[in-house]
Amino acid sequence: MPDLNLYNTLSRKKEVFKPLNEGKVGMYVCGPTVYGDAHLGHARPGITFDVVFRYMQHLGYKTRYVRNITDVGHLVNDADEGEDKIAKKARLDQLEPMEVVAFYTRSYHKDMAMLNTLPPSIEPTATGHIIEQIAMIEKILANGYAYEVDGNVYFDVVKYNEDHAYGKLSGRNIDDMISNTRDLEGQSEKRNSVDFALWKKASPEHIMRWPSPWSEGFPGWHLECSAMSTKYLGARFDIHGGGMDLVFPHHEAEIAQSCASDGHEAVNYWMHNNMITINGQKMGKSLGNFITLSEFFSGEHDKLEQAYNPMTIRFFILQAHYRSTVDFSNEALLAAEKGMTKLMAALETLEGIQVSEDSTVNVEDYKKKFYESINDDFNTPILIAHLFDAVKQINSIAAGKGSLNKSSKEELTQLLSDFCFDILGLKKLAVEAQDGLADDVMEVVLGLRKIAKENKDWTTADFIRDELGKLNITVKDSKEGAIWTKE
Question: What architecture does CATH give domain 18-273?
Answer without folding.
Answer: 3-Layer(aba) Sandwich (3.40)
